[in-house]
Amino acid sequence: MATTTASLTLTSTDLFDDSLSISNTSTLYKAGTTIGLDQTTGLTKTYVTATQQFDPFPVVKDATNANENGRVYIANMSEEETEYITVSIGDAVIGRLYAGDFMWMPWSPRAQHVNDIEITPSVATGMWIEYMAIHNFANIYPDSADS
Amino acid sequence: MATINATLSVSSGDLSSNGLSLSKTMTMTKAGTATGLEFSSGLIRRKLTATTLIDLVTVGAQMYGTPTASVANKLYVKNTGSSSTDYIDVAIGDSETDSGEELLATGGNSKITLGRLYGGEWMLIPFEGSTNNDIIVAPSTAEATTIEWMLFFE
Question: Running DSSP on this structure, what letter comes out for residue B29?
Answer without folding.
Answer: B
